[in-house]
Structure formats: structure tokens, C-alpha cells
């Protein structure tokens, strides 16, 4: 009997596997025993005295009859069956906690060298559960463990892990590696092998290619499908449309439809959604409109319409097997294109046209209405935007949190906070729970009207409602109090951020705190935070140095500002910042401030050094500004005829630097005279 059939026969009333000795009843796994536990889960310790036969042992199967015959089997078989059943049950919950418990059990079994008690079915379920619950790398390790044990992971199992690995750009390379390892392991085996990649597996890896814009690898995978005897389906071609849209290859879009029709694969409505979305993404709204209009007119020669832009001719007349009517998704995608291009009136016209359609599938949905609300918000027509929300209620179209957030953003941008608060209450009354975006929008609204205490009260309400603040929440509040000269409150918010285990503090938060202290002239605190930041392994950015330099200038500490220059210069020699891919290049603001400090303090040699560096980076310099500044402050520098010879000799180097700077600025100087 399959595990899921057993599970469906009744609810399991246990939390973890419990193994007891029949003599002393001591828990071997040290897990708590529920008040009621099925007898077949109370295992005998003799399971641990069984010698491991082979890591490639075939999986233990349940008897096909029922649990009433379990006593006919040896203790090892009974315990192996119960163990695998437990792993399947925990995997079926697919929550981080249940996967963690299953992981602990598996680790215990592995440490005791009893992996031969496990079967392919339970490990496969655990791999999928781990991937779904946010631990795709652990899911990958389970797949590789199955291979080591001699099991053949089903293609549905390992391809699911590939899919979830590919959802994160950090893990996409692992997804490709796992896919190719699985493919290589089944080359040369029979076509009936359950590990062999199928169309779904190829679609999973192709979708990762599309998300990352990897066209070359995707085209290689299309060719590889033929080596495994796998035929592409309609989803495969939809993914290729998405890929070509991502890499902005408009010239290849029409070829996808032609290839589909040539392979006798019928497009689906999602195919046309992808086509319209592609042209909207290209900014070619005219082509998108032509496509939608052709669908409205039940035309079947879509390929010829798509070829009109590049004036290419078809080798043969390819017609769709049937006509396709645009649905609400296609209309909404076109509406978003209008919104992006600023054609706000067209957004409203499209909404009204959809409402007049005879086909119910073309009527607006919540996304359509939300797009219309966003258009009215951009137009500043908040009354009309709110009218659309009331219209949704009239048509019994449920609004979601995104709909309310769009309207909330409009009220906050127009500084109508009283209406924003009323809307927030309406949202709660409608049974919609505000999310972190809702509160962040409201907090930002209070900050825009300089009501920082109102923003802080909103922050407290957010936490009392059980909604976790995001990094944006914390940094927005820090910025607000920093701008208003309240760095102490900004620092307290930063401390709260450090205590929040769900938030990973980044360089932006550190920079915000340094900026807060620098604006307030509390440079000793700013220097202390700067040092702590570097001790935590964060690399200062252009914004970090800019805040410090400007802070030292305001505090009239030019020497400390110039002390940063060697470090800034050294940083430019590094290949990247914090393991990233962007080079560290100071901007005009920092370097210009440093040069001005040097000129004011008569450090002309250092000023010329920084100016030479700016010239190397091709950063424009205003000679007029520094010429005027020099004439204002130092027009008579080193020109006294009454200075002693010793004094003149001591300042000879400084005089030479001053003359060199005058030469650079185009002022009369000894170089020019000689």
C-alpha cells in the first residue's frame, strides 16, 4: 500500500518518532511521547542491533493487505516501515518545523549508520518538502544522498528541487548543476527509468534560464531535449517567449509561434498573454494593440501580423488552429503598458471597454481595478481612484491588500494623511489585514509632513498588530529622525533593528546611522559607528565617506576629513566592494569637498594630488571655483618680503606647491613668469 493511502486512512496522532525498549521503556531519540500513540509506532530496540546490509538495499514496502498483518514481519521490517511512514508524514506537512524534525531524525539515523532502514519513497517526500519549505539546498542534499544509497529519485522529485533552487539567484547555479548531474546519470539507460528527465524537468530548468536571461544555455537545452526523446509542449514555448522578452530579442518572438504551429502544438491563452507582455516590455504598444485587436476580430493569421514590424515574409501560410479571444489578463497587461507609458486616459478607457464586453472572461478582475486605481493616483485624481474602489464593492469584486495599498499610497503622496488613516480603518473593517507595505506607506506619509512622532506611533501599531517591520521600515524611520537632527532616536531604532532576528542589517542601515550623527555634528559618535561597521565586515561605500567628509567640514575639522583620503584612495585599488561586482569609485561630491578643504587650509600639494586623480577618472573640475577661492583666501600667500631667510627656506616646499596650484588654476605664477 502506498504511504499516502495509509495516511488517508486516519489522522496520525504523534509529533515525533519514539523508540522504546520493551524492558525499560527508555526513549532512544529523547523525544516527547504523546498521550495517545498508535501501537505500530512503538518500536523495539532490536532495530538498532540489525547489521546494515548494503547502502543500496531496495526500499522496504508496506504489505498490500493492512496493518493487521504487521506482526508477520520481523522487527527490523516493522521499524523500518514505521520510520519511513513518519518521515512521509512530517514531509507531508511541509513546514520549516516539520522538515527540521525530519532532518533531526535523519541525522540520528545517519550517525548510527542505519541508512539502510530508509526507502526511496520517504526520502523523495522529504526532498520535496525541504524545497517547498524554504530549504532547497537541503532538498538537493537529500537527492544526492538517494543516489549514494543506490536509489533512483523520480524525475518529479528532483525536478521539483531544481525548480525551487532556481527561485533564488544565489542558488540558480546549483539548480543547473543538479539538472546536469541527473541527466548524466541516466544517459545510456532505458527509457523507462524513472529518473530520466521529462518535459516538465526541462521546462523547470528552461524557466530558470528565462529568469536569468541565459539564452545560450536555454537553446542548448532545447537541443538536448531531443537526445532524451523529450518533446517540447506549449509551456516550453511560452517559456521561450518569456526568455526572448527578457533578453529583448523582439526579432525572435514570431519564430516561436511559427515553430509551435510547425510542430502541431496548439497555443493556449497563456501563450498570447506572454506575447502581449513581451511587446509591452519592449515598449512596442502599437504591436501589442495590433495583436489584441486581431484576437478581438477572431483572426488566425497571427504569424503574419507579428512579422509586419521587421517586414519578413513567411515561407508558408501558418494559421492558428482556432481563434482566441482576449481575456482579462491580456487586457490588464495592456493597461499596465499604458500606465507605464503615462497614457493614463487609455487605462481608464480600457477599463470601461472591458466592462462592456459580452464575454465574462474579459470582464475586469481585482488586478484590472487596481491598475485603474494606480492610474488615477498618478493623475492626482484621488476622488476618482476611491470611486473605483467603491465600484468594486458594487460589482462584488473583492479588493485585496494591493488595491488598498495603491490608494493608500496616493493619499500619502498628496499629504492627505487623515484620509489615509480613514482608508486604513476601512481596510480593516473589510476584513483585509494591512501588510508591511501598508504600514511603510503610512509611515512614509507621516514623515513627508514632518510628523515623526506620528510615524513612530504607526511603527508601534504595526508591531502590536504582529506585523514584522522590514529593512525599509527601519531605515525610513532612521532617515526621518536623522534629517530632523535627532540622531539619538535614530540610534535607538538601529538598536531595535539589531535585535530583530528576522532582519539582516545591511550597509544602507549603517550609512543611515553615520549620516544621522554627521548631520548633527556628533562626529565622535559617527567615527565610532564607522569603526564598528568595519569590524562587522562591512566595506564603506561612497555614501559612507561622503557623510563623514561633509560632517567633518560642518564641524570645522578639515584635518580629520583629509585623513580619510588615503583610505579612499586605497579602496579604489580593490576590485570590488564586499564581494560584490561593482568597483569602488569616489564621486564628484566627495572629491570636490576634499579639494575645497585642501585649498581653504592651504594644503596645495594634497589638492593637486586629488585633482590629478579626478582627471584620471575623467571627473569634471570647476577651475573657476578654485581660482576664485584661492584669490579670496590666499592672494598674498608667501609674498612677504620681510620674512627671514630661514623662514623662507622652511616654507619653500609649500611655496612651490602653491605656485604649482596657481599654474593649474591659470593664475599668474613663477612657472608662467619663468
Give a short synopsis of this structure.
The chain is mainly α and 674 residues long. Helix content is 62%, strand content 0%. The relative contact order is 0.03.
Please characterize this protein's 3D structure.
It is a single chain. The chain is globular. The chain has 35 helices and no strands. The chain has a domain at about 1-150. It is mostly helical and about 675 residues long. About 35% of the residues are buried. It has helices at about 5, 75-95, 95-110, 120-130, 135-150, 155-165, 170-185, 200-210, 215-225, 235-245, 255-260, 270-280, 285-295, 300-305, 330-340, 345-355, 365-380, 380-395, 400-415, 415-430, 435-450, 450-465, 470-485, 485-500, 505-520, 525-535, 540-555, 560, 565-570, 590-600, 605-615, 625-635, 645-650, 650-665, 670-674. Mean pLDDT is about 80; it is low at about 1-75 and about 575-580. Helix 2 runs antiparallel to helix 3 (about 95-110) and helix 26 runs antiparallel to helix 27.
Rounded to an integer in angstroms, the radius of gyration calculated over CA atoms is 34 Å
Mean pLDDT: 82
Distance between the terminal alpha carbons, to the nearest Å?
Answer: 103 Å
- Structure summary, number of beta strands: 0
Poorly predicted tracts of residues: 1-77, 575-581
The main sheet comes to:
none
What is the number of helices?
Answer: 35
Class by helix and strand content? mainly alpha
Helix share bin? 55-70%
Beta percentage is under 5%
Amino acid at each position: 500500500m502506498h504511504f499516502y493511502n495509509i495516511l488517508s486512512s486516519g489522522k496520525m496522532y504523534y509529533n515525533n518518532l519514539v523508540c522504546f525498549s520493551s524492558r525499560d521503556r527508555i526513549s532512544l531519540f529523547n523525544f516527547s511521547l504523546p498521550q495517545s500513540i498508535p501501537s505500530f509506532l512503538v518500536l523495539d530496540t532490536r532495530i538498532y542491533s540489525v547489521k546494515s546490509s548494503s547502502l543500496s538495499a531496495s526500499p522496504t514496502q508496506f504489505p498490500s493487505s493492512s496493518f493487521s498483518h504487521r506482526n508477520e514481519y520481523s522487527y527490523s521490517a516493522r521499524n523500518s516501515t514505521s520510520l519511513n511512514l513518519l518521515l512521509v508524514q512530517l514531509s507531508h506537512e511541509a513546514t520549516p518545523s516539520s522538515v527540521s524534525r525530519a532532518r533531526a531524525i535523519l541525522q540520528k539515523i545517519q550517525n548510527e549508520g542505519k541508512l539502510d532502514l530508509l526507502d526511496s519513497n520517504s526520502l523523495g517526500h522529504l526532498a520535496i518538502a525541504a524545497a517547498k519549505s524554504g530549504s532547497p539546498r537541503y532538498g538537493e542534499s537529500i537527492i544526492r544522498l538517494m543516489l549514494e544509497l543506490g536509489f533512483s529519485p523520480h524525475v518529479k522529485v528532483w525536478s521539483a528541487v531544481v525548480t525551487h533552487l532556481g527561485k533564488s539567484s544565489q542558488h540558480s547555479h546549483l539548480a543547473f548543476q543538479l539538472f546536469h548531474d541527473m541527466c548524466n546519470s541516466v544517459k545510456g539507460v532505458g527509457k523507462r527509468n524513472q529518473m530520466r528527465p521529462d518535459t516538465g524537468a526541462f521546462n523547470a530548468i528552461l524557466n530558470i534560464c528565462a529568469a536569468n536571461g541565459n539564452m545560450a544555455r536555454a537553446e542548448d537545452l532545447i537541443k538536448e531535449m531531443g537526445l532524451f526523446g523529450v518533446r517540447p509542449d506549449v509551456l516550453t514555448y511560452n517559456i521561450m517567449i518569456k526568455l526572448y522578452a527578457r533578453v529583448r530579442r523582439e526579432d525572435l518572438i514570431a519564430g516561436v509561434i511559427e515553430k509551435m504551429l510547425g510542430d502541431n502544438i496548439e497555443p493556449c491563452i497563456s501563450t498570447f498573454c506572454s506575447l502581449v507582455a513581451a511587446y509591452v516590455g519592449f515598449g512596442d504598444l502599437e504591436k501589442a494593440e495590433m495583436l489584441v485587436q486581431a484576437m478581438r476580430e477572431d483572426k488566425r493569421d497571427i504569424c503574419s501580423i507579428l512579422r509586419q514590424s521587421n517586414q519578413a515574409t513567411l515561407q508558408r501560410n501558418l494559421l492558428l488552429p482556432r481563434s482566441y479571444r482576449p481575456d482579462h489578463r491580456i487586457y490588464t497587461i495592456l493597461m499596465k503598458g499604458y500606465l507605464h507609458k503615462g497614457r493614463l486616459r487609455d487605462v481608464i478607457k480600457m477599463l470601461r471597454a472591458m466592462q462592456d464586453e459580452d464575454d465574462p472572461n474579459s470582464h475586469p478582475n481585482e488586478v484590472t481595478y487596481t491598475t485603474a486605481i494606480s492610474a488615477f493616483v498618478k493623475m492626482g485624481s484621488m476622488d476618482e481612484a476611491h470611486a473605483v474602489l467603491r465600484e468594486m464593492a458594487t460589482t462584488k469584486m473583492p479588493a485585496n491588500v494591493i488595491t488598498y495599498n495603491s490608494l493608500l499610497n496616493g493619499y500619502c503622496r498628496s499629504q492627505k494623511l487623515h484620509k489615509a488613516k480613514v482608508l486604513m480603518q476601512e481596510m480593516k473593517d473589510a476584513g483585509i489585514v494591512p501588510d508591511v507595505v501598508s504600514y511603510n506607506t503610512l509611515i512614509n506619509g507621516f514623515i513627508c509632513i514632518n510628523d515623526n512622532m506620528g510615524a513612530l506611533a504607526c511603527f508601534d501599531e504595526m508591531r502590536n498588530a504582529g506585523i514584522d517591520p522590514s529593512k525599509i521600515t527601519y531605515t525610513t524611520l532612521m532617515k526621518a529622525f536623522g534629517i530632523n537632527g535627532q540622531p539619538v532616536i535614530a540610534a535607538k531604532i538601529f538598536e531595535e533593528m539589531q535585535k530583530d532576528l528576522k532582519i539582516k542589517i545591511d550597509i544602507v542601515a549603517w550609512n543611515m546611522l553615520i549620516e544621522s550623527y554627521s548631520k548633527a555634528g556628533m562626529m565622535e559618535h559617527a567615527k565610532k559607528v564607522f569603526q564598528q561597521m568595519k569590524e562587522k565586515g562591512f566595506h564603506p561605500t561612497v555614501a559612507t565617506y561622503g557623510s563623514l567628509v561633509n560632517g567633518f567640514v560642518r564641524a570645522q575639522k578639515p584635518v580629520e576629513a583629509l585623513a580619510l583620503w588615503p583610505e579612499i584612495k586605497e579602496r579604489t585599488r580593490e576590485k570590488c566592494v564586499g564581494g560584490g561586482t561593482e568597483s569602488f569609485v569616489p564621486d564628484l561630491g566627495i572629491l570636490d569637498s576634499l579639494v575645497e578643504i585642501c585649498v581653504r587650509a592651504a594644503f596645495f600639494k594634497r589638492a593637486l594630488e586629488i585633482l590629478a586623480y579626478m582627471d584620471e577618472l575623467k571627473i569634471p573640475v570647476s577651475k573657476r571655483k578654485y581660482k576664485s577661492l584661492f584669490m579670496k583666501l590666499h592672494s598674498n600667500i608667501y609674498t612677504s618680503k620681510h620674512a627671514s631667510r630661514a623662514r623662507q627656506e622652511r616654507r619653500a616646499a609649500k611655496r612651490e606647491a602653491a605656485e604649482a596650484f596657481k599654474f593649474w588654476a591659470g593664475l599668474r605664477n613663477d612657472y608662467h613668469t619663468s
